[in-house]
Amino acid sequence: MNTLKVGDKAPQFTLSDANEQQVALNELLKQGKVLVYFYPKAMTPGCTVQAQQLRDHQAELAEHNVITVGISPDAPKRLAKFTERDELNFTLLSDEDHAVAEAFGVWGLKKFMGREYDGIHRISFLINQDGTIAEVFDKFKTKDHHQVVLDTLSDS
Q1: Which of 20, 33, 92, 156 has the most CB atoms around its CB within 10 Å?
Q2: Which catalysed reactions does the entry list for this protein (predicted)?
């Protein structure tokens, strides 16, 4: 796994959202900075806590001109259920073939309960409007992710 670093150019991508509409990173960047957060699976406990915290703090992120986008290997239908169930107020994108996760360097070997498998590592990237990586967030608990991001934004 070769995760992107601060200063790297973010890979351009276009993925389907929960409504099967195409969303392109370059279009989002016209509106502000983009927080791209990768998460393993919609509607699982850790991913739910992380999404709910981001939902509850969207206004604060918007004050910093940040748009939030979550990416997982889930199909759009599952993303739609997750969005509706948890009343999410940001975009979730489907990366079923994990090509975007691989491009960002967040797809790789994981270990859980003695089992090894390939999957998404929970890593987030703050992308500047020029398309460069401003911050990489890889050390946080799901319930604190939003605060780590907000603290970084407040310090810059």
Answers
A1: 92
A2: a hydroperoxide + [thioredoxin]-dithiol = an alcohol + [thioredoxin]-disulfide + H2O
